[in-house]
Design a protein that fits this description.
515 residues; alpha+beta; four-stranded antiparallel beta sheet; two-stranded parallel sheet; 6 strands; 7% strand
């Protein structure tokens, strides 16, 4: 499973292959340079202090300055490249996921909370790719540094090196166990964050309902419950993440202490030079940092994989499959017919619509009357092909709507629904939403037809007034008029009003009907 996830993650890296290759080269060079103090320390003690080599006394400090200046430049360039790649990936994956979700069937949106989807697009993608960026930036660099340091200590004293590293394989099993627990905890944490996002979204969107019923404390308790659960998960996460460092440090000190005693004895008996002994001890302690980083990278990658599983779960969902024809609905000429239409929602046992036969001629108005839940809106949804009929067919100008391209079909329809949705934008942009290229005159004309212009002219900023989330700064009637103006401006040949005038007074309703 993990291998497949890695493959899918690295597919996103294809556009960045050249930059990534350069980053790998820089990582290797930086990793090698990081191990350079070991041989230089040996030279310092054996050649300068013991043999009193004044020439090397001048050379070694100069060499250190040059190579570490080079390392600083490469490290800076490496960070710029890696963070450029990782943030590019975050943006790219979020855009792809956002676009993919928009193509999923309507049933998906009925079954999934908006807050959960927001959490996956924002939080999960960030966690998934933060692990990847750390993998790209630190894995090669620390692996090369560790390998180079191992090479130096084996070169200096192979028997000491074997004794020193004999304890470290003991860390592999506990770290693997910790990583698995971290992966589970990340799953739990992300689920709770999604619940938190949903709670915030619902509570703030329905703030009038919350306050009118005096439910502020209930909402606070709900938020507190999720926050406490998240805190528990985070505490466990920190507990498992941070335990590897002290364990590695303890093993490192145990190894170094033994070499200090055993190697020190050999130095005192002149079997080994002081430079070799000091360089070996320094190399041993230097190995601790890349080793600790590699273990942290491993645990980090596990949390990233947990987030990746949630993200790719969405990517794996099949996009809406609609049988689409090749004909273009360029002009509405004759009629709309519902022929023996029946429909049942997958989540219900009973039919919502059964054997509906309706014909509507062009330039005629048809009113469909029925109790709530009797299927009036479902008929509209079927015409837009948001759902497909269980049986029967819908014809426009004698042609099954399945034979039209989806774009041309929906471009010929304008809808004002009973659930008005406006965007947190200006009045002008909301009216022009279905026709962004509309001129100012067209917008004003549509506004006057829908009785929008009458209240907009009284606003300080006129059509540039920001209306807030879902049009919260406007009254229900004003929001409905803007939605009607939006449909009028679209100028589609077929206009559908799904209880669109329910929030209008009788005078405004008459004006809109006349328009």
């Amino acid at each position: 499973m993990n291998i497949q996830l890695y493959k899918r993650l690295f597919r996103f890296l294809k556009p960045y292959i050249k930059k990534l290759s350069l980053a790998i080269l820089f990582s290797v060079i930086v990793g090698v340079i990081a191990s350079s103090p070991v041989p230089l320390i040996q030279k310092t003690f054996d050649d300068i202090f013991v043999q009193k080599d004044f020439f090397m006394l001048k050379v070694i400090p100069l060499v250190l300055i040059i190579i570490y200046s080079f390392k600083a430049v490469l490290s800076y360039a490496l960070n710029i490249i890696i963070f450029g790649i990782s943030w590019g990936l975050v943006v790219s994956v979020r855009e792809k996921l956002f676009a993919h979700i928009h193509k999923l069937p309507f049933r998906f949106f009925e079954d999934n909370e908006t807050g959960h989807l927001m959490s996956k697009i924002i939080n999960d993608v960030s966690i998934m790719l933060s692990g990847m960026s750390r993998l790209m930036k630190e894995l090669i660099q620390n692996s090369v540094t560790l390998a180079a340091l191992l090479g130096w200590v084996f070169y200096l004293k192979w028997d000491w090196a074997l004794i020193s590293i004999i304890l470290f394989p003991a860390m592999i099993f506990p770290v693997g166990n910790i990583a698995r627990k971290l992966k589970r905890l990340t799953h739990q944490g992300q689920e709770i964050l999604a619940d938190l996002s949903s709670t915030i979204l619902e509570s703030f969107s329905g703030v009038k309902v919350v306050r009118s019923f005096g439910m502020e404390s209930t909402e606070e308790q709900k938020f507190h419950k999720f926050s406490e659960r998240y805190l528990k998960v985070i505490k466990k996460n920190v507990k498992y993440t941070e335990i590897t460092s002290p364990l590695l440090e303890l093993l490192g000190v145990m190894s170094a202490s033994f070499i200090l005693w055993y190697g020190g004895y050999q130095v005192l008996t002149d079997e080994v030079s002081q430079g070799t002994f000091i360089a070996f001890i320094v190399g041993l302690f230097m190995m601790y940092t890349p080793l600790r980083q590699l273990f942290k990278i491993y645990t980090n990658v596990q949390t990233s994989l947990a987030a990746a599983e949630r993200v790719f779960y969405l990517f794996d969902l099949e996009e809406e499959k609609i049988k689409e024809g090749s004909q273009e609905l360029l002009e509405f000429k004759g009629s709309i017919e519902f022929q023996d239409i029946s429909f049942k929602y997958p989540s219900r046992n009973a039919m919502v619509l059964s054997g509906i036969n309706v014909e509507l001629k062009k330039s005629k108005t048809l009113a469909i009357v029925g109790m709530s839940g009797s299927g009036k809106t479902t008929l509209v949804d079927l015409l837009f092909r948001f759902h497909e009929p269980s049986s029967g067919k819908i014809l426009i100008d004698g042609i099954n709507i399945e034979d039209y391209t989806l774009n041309s079909l929906r471009s010929s329809l304008a809808l004002v629904s009973q659930e008005i949705f406006l965007f947190n934008d200006t009045i002008r942009q909301n009216i022009a939403y279905g026709r962004p290229s509309a001129s100012e005159d067209d917008i004003i004309q549509a506004s006057k037809a829908a009785n929008v212009d009458s209240f907009v002219s009284a606003l300080d900023e006129g059509y540039d007034t920001m209306i807030g989330e879902r049009g919260v700064k406007l009254s229900g009637g004003q929001r409905q008029r803007i939605a009607i103006a939006r449909a009028i401006l679209r100028n589609a040949p077929i206009l559908i009003l799904d209880e669109a005038s329910s929030a209008l007074d009788s005078e405004s309703e008459k004006s809109v009907q006349d328009a």
